[in-house]
Amino acid sequence: MKPAARTTKKPSPVAGKDEAIDYKNLELLAKCLSSQGQIVSRRRTGLNSQRQRELKNAMKRARHMALLPFVA
């Protein structure tokens, strides 16, 4: 049997940076959306729980202000 192929994790667009997560930063928020318009999980973004909550609230605020789509 072949050993399982190892995949490398992509660097997170948010993790490790001191950049503030803000609803006006659409470039950053768009990187954390899946192709269906859903928020990507913590496992994929590499964020801690506090930063993930900030991301969630920024996404909701941007969607409410019609800066981001609810569904792609």
TrEMBL record:
The keyword Mitochondrion does not apply. GO terms for cellular component: ribonucleoprotein complex; ribosome. GO terms for biological process: translation. GO terms for molecular function: small ribosomal subunit rRNA binding; structural constituent of ribosome. Keywords: Ribonucleoprotein, Ribosomal protein. The keyword Amino-acid biosynthesis does not apply. InterPro entries: Ribosomal_bS18 (IPR001648), Ribosomal_bS18_sf (IPR036870). Belongs to the bacterial ribosomal protein bS18 family. PANTHER family: 30S RIBOSOMAL PROTEIN S18, SMALL RIBOSOMAL SUBUNIT PROTEIN BS18M. NCBIfam families: S18. This is 30S ribosomal protein S18. The gene is rpsR.
